[in-house]
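Q: Could you write out the predicted structure for this multi-component system? I'm mainly interested in how the pieces pack against one another.
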Amino acid sequence: MSEIKFTIDGKECAAKAGQTIVEAARDNGVYIPTLCHYEGIKPAGACRVCTVRVGGRNMAACTTPVANGMVIENKTDELEDMRKAIIEMLFVEGNHMCPVCEKSGNCELQALAYRYTMLAPRFPYLWPRRGVDASMPKLYKDGNRCIQCLRCVRGVTAADGRKVFGLVNRGGQVRISHDAELSNALTDEQARRAMDLCPVGALIRKEVGYAVPIGKRKYDSAPIGGDVERA
Amino acid sequence: MGNNVAVIKRIVEAHGADRGRLLDIVRDAQREFGCVSDESVAEIARLLKLSSVDVEGVVTFYHFFSKTPVGKYGIYLNNSATAVMNGRAAVAKAFSEAAGVRFGQVTADGLIGLFDTSCIGMNDQEPAAIINGVVFTKLTPEKAKSIVAGLKSGKSVDSLVEGFGNGANQSELVRSMVNNNIVRKGPVLFGEYTPGAAIKKAVSLKPEDVIEEVKISNLRGRGGAGFPTGMKWEFCRKAAGERHYVICNADEGEPGTFKDRVILTELPRLLFEGMAVAGYAVGAAEGILYLRAEYMYLREYLEDVLADLRKKNVLGKDAGGKSGFSFDIRITMGAGAYVCGEESALIESAEGKRGEPRNRPPFPVEAGYMGKPTTVNNVESYCAAARIVLEGGEWFRKMGTSQSAGTKLVSVSGDCKKPGIYEIEFGTTLQTLLEMVEGRTAKAVQVGGPSGVCVGKKDFGRRIGFEDLATGGSVIVIGPERNLLEIVRNFMEFFVEESCGWCVPCRAGNVLLLNKLEKIMEGHAGMNDIAELESWCLTVKGMSRCGLGQTSPNPIYTTIQNFRELYEAKVKGDAEYVTEFNLAEAVKASCEAAGRIPNVHEEH
């Protein structure tokens, strides 16, 4: 496998051919924030939080393959501010009430807000009317918290490959819908995976909750991305 | 429902139970039932072995599909800025009063539904509406009332059309009141042309030499982005794949663009022949014309032209008389989505899916339609390519500027005496164009549609061309009396409506930009709001996934640059903080909604 040389913010890095910028950066101990990205499922380029600058152009690091000689800008003031703006957009676009959310402490959106020291969003809240759907036997879906990252859409499929979840409507009205029949057939294992895939608290398993107490959760003691930077 | 199941089955089978034809299936179901209900969605999904969310996703993505009934007659009234300039509000009011319902609603008897719709490509004859596929132009309140009265009395939509437009609009298969308004003809589009000559010449050359000729011409994509056409064809030809495809992007949705509509009406042979030339050059046997739903009224006519070209051997087996070269074209319809003008979204839509742009790489020339190498070009680009084969690349390159060769078809609308189609040489200044169209009093010109640039008077010396003012064709003249910020608001509402919703900055950002603009327009802003608005524009432009979000802040961004005084005039002095809303007004509004009489102390 051919070795690729590139730089991120001046740091000399090496990568394997076929890796995306996000993966290659991680292997070199450089954290690029992501939200819709999830190891092992097809990248969507939906949240744009991983936007980096290459050759004067902005591109999503999760969908762009790394190439030999690439000069990547990652942690510039301009990019960091625009990433923070996107996180703030997500907070005002939905209804995110962290103190009452089962995902608090395990939530990647919340963790990124801490990492970017978001105090109050720069944008006015949109207070959308979104519903909670408890019609699935094993999961409930809270539209208030959904950030339309499409992880569930991409990562949860029936045995025959059909999508269980899908995007409906367009623009500011997009929502995650589900196929009633296929979601009825979800196994416990699939339901757990759906909740694990969800970066926020939009997909929550029924009947089990707060198995890990708040205070002992993933991002309670270490910031998101810390594992990559320590490695 | 038992009966409905049988109808859905018939529709699905009529399209070969092919999931790639999902848009056609949904369109037929919509036509049959006036909506695509949850039951229909489930049945279509079952028959196509899809997840119901795949079908629901398509039904809810496109403007002309609906889960709830749109009425026996759905009246879709264009709400582009030019329509507003030409008296849309009074027409909308007349429709509303005559039908007895507001826009967005359907009459209780299910007869008439009223809906807003994004630019339908009739900007030179606004206000215009589409009713069950039939286009009505130059509407007045009186005409609106008589249309509703006619529909109520049981007349057919066709019978309400009063007089036909010129040219092929009068032909038996079109019979439309649409007018061409071709004001200025030029050598590339309107030069002398004998059908069949271009493909004969092309097949006498090697495919590589056809591409070379197009490269020599410096032809760049006429949709507005300006990618070199010859290079695109070369990439496509060289890409590995057992099949290659040629797609024509006839989804002109940029408000103010209607030049492709005129090409499709008057020059379809030149267009299809250009596609055949492309097919020969890239090694494709299949071409697809992706036609926007708004131009459905041209479909039968275009099918007839295709049949004729097959007879004349311009298309079909041994096309152009070249043994072994087969090329044919089919038409696939859109269903109302501006974003489908983006080539990868168009491909998704042509595959029967939601029109969401794809991530790149891979590019369509490597993996496009059905994952195969595909060249997607604009209607005008194919016409130009056919002409280049006939006249030579050098001939073409002599016109225009060094970076923008040839001529450009522009569609001019707004405050001018001669709206319509103009074939102008690249490099023409706005001032010269304004003289041609008799719009000398303009205070601003919107070049390239909402996603383009709003140019002020001091810059009317700027030139149409990729190196200066790029445009897919839209030129909107804005007269001295117009409220420019209202036009900006109209453009932003358009982008909010048309964002596909896939990526955050475009989905949420455009709503936030529109809200902030309105805050300023309503006098609740301080100076810092203008600075914030400008910086938010850069975030949306810089972070969005496709061209829609990368350009959607332009109405605000370019007017802050060129007409800053309009924003500053709305701001309350140098106040750093201004309340977001007027309490007394808000109380009045909510009392009105609740049917109570407000009792508030006015601020002094």
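A: Regarding packing and overall arrangement: The first strand of chain B starts at residue 73 and ends at 78.
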